[in-house]
Amino acid sequence: MKIFSLGMDQLTNNEMKLAGFTVITQNVLPEPAHAEGHMLMITSEQVSVSALSELSRKFPRSTILYVYLQKGVRGYQAIHMLCESLGICFIPPRSTSSAIIEKLRYIIEEEQEERGNLVGFFGSGPGIGCTSVAKLFARRIAAAGLRVILLGMDLYDPGYDRKPAISLDRLRPRITGKMLHGEDFEGLIKQDGYSYLPGNFDFLSVHDYQEEEIEYLLAEAGANADVVVADFGSIPESAAWYVGMQKSALRMMVTHPRHEYRLQALLELTGHMDLHPQDFQWIINRSNVEEITSPKSLALRFGSEILLELPFYQPLLDSLPLDKKELQHVDDKVHALLVSLGLAPEVRKKGIFQ
C-alpha cells in the first residue's frame, strides 16, 4: 500500500520510509484513480476542515488520514467527530513521527514487536501528588534491583525544591543537538537507588520545547535504564505531556474523587489520541480524605481500573512515609508492572492442588 503525502514535513516522510512504508510526496492532490486502494495523508494546512466532505467524496476508495496541525487543547473535538462521520482517520496536533507511524501500523493491522520501558505518571490537577507518587514507584522499582531513571518532564514544575547542577533545562542544549551520551545519565542525581533528572526550572521556555526533543530524550533514557519513570505533570498544554501520552508503555493517572470534572475533560482529550479509559491505571492519592464520590464509584463511572489507593500525608515530604503493609501493597503492584514490561517473571500463587 502506498502513502500519498501532501503537506507533511520531510522529516516525517523520511521516518515513514525508514519504517518500511512506500511514501510518495505530493505537491498537489493526486488523481483519485492513482490513489485508489492506497492511503492519502494530508494536513489541515493543505485542506481546510470545510473541504473535508468534498475530499471524502473525491477519494471514496482511498484511506484518508487527516493531520490536524492547529495546536491547543481546545478546538479539535468537533473536527475529530467530523472525520469519524466521514470515515477519515484523524491525527491530532503534536503527534510525533513515531506516533503517526504507530497509527499507520494500527490501520493496516501490522504487528508491533517493540516493547517500551517507559512508565508515565500524569496528574488530574496541580498539587495532586504526581511527583511524589512517581518517586515512590521509582524507589520501589530500584529496590527490586533494576536500573531506574526518573525524568522530571513536567515543564511547569521542576519537582525539586532547589536548583541543582543538572536539570532538564540545563541539559536541553545537548537534547536539542541530539548529543546525549551514557555519561549524561551517569551524572544525574542519585536518589533512593535511582537516577533523577529534575524538571524544567526555566518557566519562560515551556512552549519552546519541541515534541522531537522530548521523544529523543525518552529514547536515550530508555537505552540507559531498565525502566524509565517519567513525571509528566498535570498540565496538558506542553510538548512533553503529549509525547508522554503517546510513548508511555504504561500510563498512571494520579487523581482523587474531587477531580471528577477534571478527569472528564482529560479523558475526552486523550480520546483524540486513540487512548481509552482502560489504557490508564488510576492511583487514588489522599484516599482517606472523605468525599461525596467514592474512588470505586469514580472508577466505575469512567471505566478505568484503580491500581492503588494511597492515604493522605502531610505535605513537603521528600518521600511518602508508608507503613510496612502499605509498602508491601505497592511492591506487589510494582512487580505486576515489571511483569507487564517483561522485566520480571510471573509468579503464580500456589493452590491447594499444587
Structural account:
- This protein has 354 residues and is an alpha/beta fold.
- It is built from 13 helices and 13 strands.
- It has helices at 10-18, 32-35, 52-58, 77-86, 97-107, 130-143, 168-176, 182-186, 211-223, 239-247, 260-271, 295-302, 324-340; strands spanning 2-6, 22-26, 39-43, 63-67, 89-91, 118-123, 148-152, 189-191, 194-197, 227-233, 250-255, 280-284, 305-309.
- The strands form two sheets. Strands 8-9-7-10-6-11-12-13 form an eight-stranded mixed sheet, with helices on both faces. A five-stranded parallel sheet has the order 2-1-3-4-5, sandwiched between helices.
- Helix 1 (10-18) packs across helix 5 (97-107).
- The longest helix is centred in the last third of the chain and has 17 residues, at 324-340.
Percent helix, as a range, is 25-40%
With strands numbered from the N-terminus, the spatial order across the biggest sheet is: 8-9-7-10-6-11-12-13
Form type = globular
| SSE pattern, N- to C-terminal | EHEHEHEHEHEHEHHEEHEHEHEHEH
* Cα separation of the termini: 52 Å
Number of strands: 13
Largest sheet properties: 8 strands, mixed
Helical region count?
Answer: 13
List keywords for this structure.
354 residues; alpha/beta; five-stranded parallel sheet; 13 helices; disordered C terminus
